[in-house]
User: Fold this.
Amino acid sequence: MGSFNASFGDRFILVGFSDWPQLEVFLFIFISISYSLTLFGNTAIIALSRLDLRLHTPMYFFLCHLSFLDLCYTTSTVPQLLINLHGLDQTITYGGCVAQLFIFLTLVSTECLLLVVMAFDRYTAVCRPLHYTTIMNSHLCQAMAISSWAIGFINSMIQTGLMMAMPLCSHRLNHFFCEMPAFVKLACEDTGGTEVKMFVARTIILVIPATLLLVSYIHIVRAVLKVKSMAGRRKAFGTCGSHLLVVSLFYGSGIYTYLQPMQSYSENDGKFVALFYTIITPILNPLIYTLRNKDVKRAMWKVVQGGREVG
Assistant:
């Protein structure tokens, strides 16, 4: 770690949204409500998927992993942001910053891969319905989930290690959490070689999964176009469209933040873009994947009625 102002020791100042004090109260209320709904919605999905045997399918197996990811990575950043907005403490230790960065990168990288796995599951269900149960067996589902977590962990370990090796010359982190592009801005020497390595890692974890996901949905759309029923086609397009909307917000904001050159990265813009994948998509995922689903509604209704016939 590079030299810091002795009065701050090894602590960073998180600037957050202090440059826009007029927004802080609004953001505090909005983010508090959104975070509460995220916790409730994703916890409900996990609980319902465990309680109702009819939800013990590959789709809900992966959806549980997605909900768990959303719960964890919002919790890794949002409480810190709320404290920052409230003005109670706008600092974070070097060790806490590195831990937050590592955890966040692990979870977000895993979600990038898990969304592709979920798209493959939907592709198999729509395009290969007769072979779905054979292809999406429990062993394959577990292997794909474990692989997503393992690759996410390795990617995070590589990028966090590269960043820890950089000497830092400032304690003023212009973000609301320890995000990688803002962290790189603190380096006091040329980071061109390190940035190239991190760019390659980010391309692998962002662009390749996004491309595979897009290909999966192209095949799904082609299959849906062959459906003769207009109502069935409209329903399928509505579901695919809502899924693609959330996926586009997640990947789009991630690609904007992590794949642009550091010279053109705007920390102020980055803070607002980061709200999409830290606040917006985690609250939309449970809504998009469950509100249109009759099985989830039925399971929830039974739980509300006292658990009759659940399972």
Observations:
- Residues 114 and 148 are 6 Å apart (CA to CA).
